[in-house]
Write a structure and sequence with these properties.
It contains two helices and 21 strands.
Length: about 350
C-alpha cells in the first residue's frame, strides 16, 4: 500500500530555505546630538534600544549562479522565537517551529509579496521544542528535542480532533531521551512510503529497539588502547553508538535502528532511487588534530556504522568496520538537506 505525502511545490522549496536564514545580530539605536547647552549636571545614561533578531539582508547572501533570493519574513524573536525547521502541510501551507516554543502556520504570499506578523498563525497544539517535522499519513509528525525536559523528547503525531482545520491533538508515539542540543531532529518518509525515518544526534540514548533492527545492538567504543576524551570536556561520558537514524512505523510501535555512528546529523533526504543521504557535523575543537573529521555527506545504508566515538576515538575512514563518507566538505554546521527534483532551480540542481 502506498501513501502520498505533502511535498512543497517548487517555489516553496526556495521560500523554505529563505525563511530559515536568520541571524542573531543586534544593533543599537544611534543617539542624535543634543542641542541642550552643557551644564554641570551629570549626563543622563544613553538610551539603548535593542531591536532583537533580524533576517540577513538579501544583498549579504551570496547565491550560486541561477538562484534568486527573496526575503519573505523577518521573524520577530521576542514574540515568535527562533525558527529552526519547517514543512508543508496537505494544503500547501508552511508549518514552522520555534526552537524552544510552539508551532506557527503560514499561507505563502504571492510572488513578490512579503509576510507581516499578523499573517503568521499560532498553531494551538500544546507542544514545544520541535526540531523536525513532516506531513505524512494525514498528520503532522514532529521530532521534539526538549533537553530542558519540560516535555518528553521523541516522536510525536499532531492531528485535528474536530475537523476545524486546527492541529490540536498531540500524541507521543515514542520517547527518545535527549541530553542536549545533539538530540532528536528531522522526520522524513521512507522511500517505500510505509514508515518514517527519525534522525538523531549523539546526545540521545537509544530506546528499546525491535529485534528486526538492522543495526546490531552490540555497540561499544571498542578501543584496544584507552582513547583520549575531549580536552575541553565536551561530551565527556557520551559514548557509542552516537547519532542514529531510526526507521519507525506510522503508529510509533515498530522502532528500529537503521544506521548509527553519526555525530550530529540534523536532516536527511531520499533520492529518486530510494537511497538515503545525510550531512554530518564536524567537531570544531578537533581542527588540526589527526582525528578531525570534517562535515561530510554520507550515503546511509541499512545497518551502516559511520564510526563516531568519543573524543579522539573516532574511526578513520579506512577502518573496515565503518563506512566512509561520500564526500568531505570541511568546517561548517549542517542544518538541512534536500534533492532539487522538480524545483525551479537551475537544471544541474534538479
Amino acid at each position: 500500500m502506498k501513501f502520498r505525502f505533502a511535498l512543497p511545490p517548487a517555489r516553496l522549496l526556495v521560500q523554505a530555505a529563505i525563511l530559515t536564514w536568520l541571524t542573531a545580530s543586534n544593533s543599537l539605536a544611534q543617539q542624535a546630538p543634543s542641542e541642550t547647552p552643557a551644564t554641570d549636571e551629570p549626563a543622563a545614561a544613553p538610551v539603548v534600544e535593542s531591536v532583537g533578531n533580524r533576517a540577513t539582508p538579501v544583498e549579504r547572501i551570496k547565491a550560486a549562479a541561477g538562484f534568486q533570493v527573496e526575503l519573505l519574513y523577518s521573524v520577530p524573536s521576542e514574540e515568535q522565537g527562533s525558527w529552526v525547521n519547517l514543512c508543508v502541510d496537505d494544503k500547501g501551507r508552511l508549518l514552522t517551529s520555534d526552537q524552544f516554543g510552539g508551532l506557527y502556520r503560514i499561507t505563502p504570499p504571492a510572488v513578490g509579496e512579503t509576510l507581516q506578523p499578523q499573517d503568521v498563525e499560532k498553531v494551538p497544539a500544546d507542544i514545544r521544542a520541535v526540531n523536525g517535522m513532516v506531513w505524512a499519513f494525514g498528520a503532522l509528525y514532529v521530532g521534539v528535542n526538549d533537553y530542558e525536559q519540560k516535555i518528553s523528547s521523541g516522536l510525536y503525531r499532531l492531528t485535528d480532533s474536530n475537523d476545524d482545520d486546527q492541529l490540536d491533538k498531540v500524541e507521543l508515539l515514542h520517547k527518545v531521551h535527549s541530553r542536549g542540543d545533539h538530540g532528536v531532529h528531522a522526520v522524513l518518509p521512507t522511500s517505500d512510503g510505509q514508515a518514517l525515518y527519525l534522525v538523531t544526534g549523539n546526545n540521545t540514548i537509544p530506546p528499546p529497539l525491535a529485534p528486526s533492527s538492522p543495526v546490531p545492538q552490540v555497540w561499544g567504543e571498542d578501543h584496544l588502547l584507552p582513547s583520549m576524551p575531549d580536552g575541553r570536556g565536551h561530551n565527556r561520558g557520551v559514548l557509542a553508538p552516537g547519532g542514529i537514524i531510526y526507521r519507525v512505523s506510522p503508529d510509533g510501535q515498530q522502532f528500529e535502528a537503521f544506521a548509527s555512528g553519526f555525530r550530529n546529523i540534523f536532516d536527511a533526504s531520499v533520492n529518486r532511487d530510494g537511497e538515503l543521504f545525510t550531512y554530518d557535523a564536524d567537531m570544531e575543537y578537533d581542527v588540526n588534530t589527526p582525528w578531525y573529521r570534517p562535515t561530510r555527506i554520507c550515503h546511509v545504508t541499512s545497518g551502516g556504522e559511520f564510526g563516531w566515538r568519543n573524543g579522539a576515538g573516532k574511526r578513520p575512514a579506512f577502518y573496515p568496520d565503518n563506512l566512509p563518507p561520500v564526500l568531505d566538505i570541511g568546517p561548517g554546521s549542517p542544518t538541512g538537506t534536500t534533492f532539487g527534483y522538480g524545483a525551479k532551480f537551475p537544471a544541474r540542481y534538479q
